[in-house]
Amino acid sequence: MKLGIIMDPINEIDIKKDSSFAMLLAAQKRGWSIHYMESDDLYMDNEIPKARMQFLEVKENPKKWFKLDKEYIDEISSLDVILMRKDPPFNLEYIYSTYILEHAQKLGVYVVNNPESLRTVNEKFFITYFPACIPPTIVSKNIKFLFEFIQKQNDVIIKPLDSMGGAGIHHIKKTNKDIKAVLKLITKNGNECVMGQKFIPEISLGDKRILLIDGKPIPYALARIPSPINQKGNLVQGATAKGIGLTERDNFICNIVGPELKKMGLTFVGIDIIGDYLTEINVTSPTCIKELDNIYNIKIADKLMNVIEKKTKEII
User: In terms of C-beta distances under 8 Å and separation of at least 24 residues, what long-range contacts does 301-304 make, across chains too?
Assistant: First the structure.
């Protein structure tokens, strides 16, 4: 098996918690060759998708965790599978990369996740397709509509549609002063859509990350519990991690969302649940493999590679 990975610079990752690194270790243990790319290495030569690549070796050594071999250029269709693991922001450059990967997919490369679905599934907006699972929600750039939503719900979280890691999130209460001024700032004076969700007090118990492989959930979630000075349930924002089993409501949400994601070719997904509500569906570069493995030793990346190997053979 020849596995390609598109990711942010590997020299900048933290191997203690990087899910892409966990995937690379699992692939290498199987004897698969690994071919490293960054997004600017992809290009089209007429109708042929190509890339500048490097052979990659990885090891669980915090001082020297990777070795890259000499660069070479080849058709992307020479690979069996590609992991698209570029972090957001989800911008036009990201979309252009999915166009190139879609060409590779048509030539028989198994792409995780499906490039068309990466474009379709905005990680914030897509929850609106599952109304039985979500809190009261609004998506708008209209200051008046957003203001009225805050007045109705009393306590609201506002977040951008294209970021990650808790960036740009605002907690606004009905009693706050200058709400409209804040909304103008967040929406860039009414020019960019944002999402508003009724504040869920259970965030104090953690923002639960549940990983799904081919539509089926790993039976444990990682609850990211906000620090006392920050209500954001993101590890990069100072939250602490705690492993927990899935609740009946968690499984209900997974049973609704999972099959739809599988149909769309979204092989590896991380959904976020606060209390009883689905808040995000992460499809670009879901994380938390390492954290859950450290707690439960469930070898999530191995389970993912099993599915990838099976699906790649089905293509062949």
Answer: 301/19, 301/22, 301/23, 301/25, 301/26, 302/26, 303/213, 303/218, 304/23, 304/26, 304/213, 304/267, 304/268
CATH number of the CATH domain containing 264:
3.30.470.20
CATH of the domain at 12: 3.40.50.20
Tell me the one-letter amino acid at 220.
Y
What ranges make up the beta strands (E) of 199-283? 207-213, 216-217, 220-225, 240-245, 268-274, 277-282
pLDDT for res 88: 82
Domain of residue 161 covers: 136-198
CATH of the domain at 146: 3.30.1490.20
Inform me whether the pLDDT recorded for 250 exceeds 90: yes
Summarize the confidence of residues 278-307 as an average pLDDT.
97
Among 182, 180, 161, residue whose Cα is nearest residue 170: 182
Cβ atoms 38, 64 nearer than 8 A: no
∠ CA 182-184-185 to the nearest 5 degrees?
Answer: 65
Q: Are 258 and 216 in contact (CB under 8 A)?
A: yes
CB atoms within 10 A of CB 159: 21
pTM exceeding 0.90: yes
